[in-house]
Amino acid sequence: MGAAYAIHFLLKFGLHLAGLIELVPALNLALALLLTWPLRGSARTAVRWLALPLAFGLLYHESPWPPLARVWSTFGAVTDFSVVYLLELATRIVHAQMLAALLVASVLLAGLATRLRLSVWVFIGLAVIAGLPSPAQLERERDIASIATSDSSGPIALNQLDRTLQAFFDGERAKTLKLAEDSGPPPFDLVILNVCSLSWDDLDTARLGDAPLMRRLDVVFDRFNTGATYSGPAVLRLLHANCGLVPQGELYGGARGECLLMRGLEQAGYQPAVLLNHDGRFDGFADMLRRDSGLSIPPEQVLDAPVAMKSFDGNPIRDDAEVLTRWWRARTDGVGNGRVALLYNSISLHDGNRVPGIASVSSLETYAPRARKLFDDLERFLDLIERSGRPTVVVLAPEHGGAVRGDAQQIAGLRELPTRALTHVPAGLMLMNFGVARAADAPPVHVTQNASYQSLFAVVAALLRGGEEATRPQRLVELGQALPPLEWVAENAGHVYLQRGPYGYLRTPDGNWRLMSAQP
């Protein structure tokens, strides 16, 4: 084994011990044996060149980066990223401090290579690592042990999880929600604020958990699960809210008509609309909405609204307040006493967006000011609704989190693993201009059980049927308590996350389950 390959292995040991990768001893041993096999001449040279892609491929496999198959499947979308965003992602994967540490270690090891046979230390290191649990394993075991002391039921056996998941999906397929029982005109407008990249974890990071916008919520879903970590499937889950959660693949290619939210709202007497603050071209987002959600109308834009920032793919993102205000005034003037049902999709918080006048090159650093600006914009829009006097139910239903903080399992900004931190979002309802205002010091109604989109719109359906009486605090409490609990299941690109009590489980695309660290 040459000194360069020996240094490569020893550096990997350091990354493994630091918890930055999870080294696979058996595969590394196989590669080390290949490199030390006694060959001569051209065969030896060929093996060294062959080992180069194998070494880097193995390192990628051991890293927290997305699987190569996933990268390949999304290659077309990734090529649409701006150069600036691609560079930013690269700095998150390999940051300056890591490069400096690796460079210093490489120099020291190169000096030692003149005095020691580093290949011997490679095999010693592999033997030691094979006999010890990895830092990631130790952390999982500590978390699981801490749960076991307070939860006597214990985790589900891994070989039972496929049956548990199948039973959940079978039960969800049987659920349907009818929004209105008769054809009478709806008593209020409906506005659904569908914000990309906003989870409870992100709110905590941006210190906005107690922002004025959040205090306006009359009903808060404490444990709301989006079921998805990417915009396409997340919005489709919202637009299929009349039915329960189904496997992600079933969202595409045409759902049952009774599952389609906008079709149900249209049958209830609404004029439905979908409004974007972006062009909807990335990854075919707007085309997907028309194809897979039963929309009879194309998504709209307000092209004369000012541009607030540039998106991760370099296209304009328009000012949220201006888009909403201009559209609302034009539409409500046009329908008179009719009722509108608006789904507004905003990507102002998406990773990689660039804001004019903010010098930082990191969109992670600009997340908090962008979130404050979005919340201020939504407050302006809510004030406009309030001044209009039109009874309106405003639904906050974010798509998914932004992974702003990141964790040991995936890099900040990446959303491949559908963990609870990504799918646990601040969903709720605001009841405006109903004549029954909540007292300033009165808390909102909290729905404390696991919930998702059908639970959210079950409350909307109850408000449609119950009129003003259903908006009273005590009635809202009863509505929240009557909602059935839901298994916590989320999915993305072959990964499935299931949580039962304090135990989380992840199924990888190869069909294997593993017990994960505890989630709050």
UniProtKB/TrEMBL annotation:
Annotated protein name in UniProt: Cellulose biosynthesis protein BcsG
EC number(s) from the headed UniProt entry: 2.7.8.-
GO molecular-function terms, A-Z: transferase activity
InterPro entries: BcsG
Record organism: Leptothrix discophora
Record's keyword terms, sorted: Membrane, Transferase, Transmembrane, Transmembrane helix
Transmembrane segments: 13-34, 94-112, 118-136
Pfam families referenced in this protein's UniProt entry, alphabetically: CBP_BcsG (PF11658)
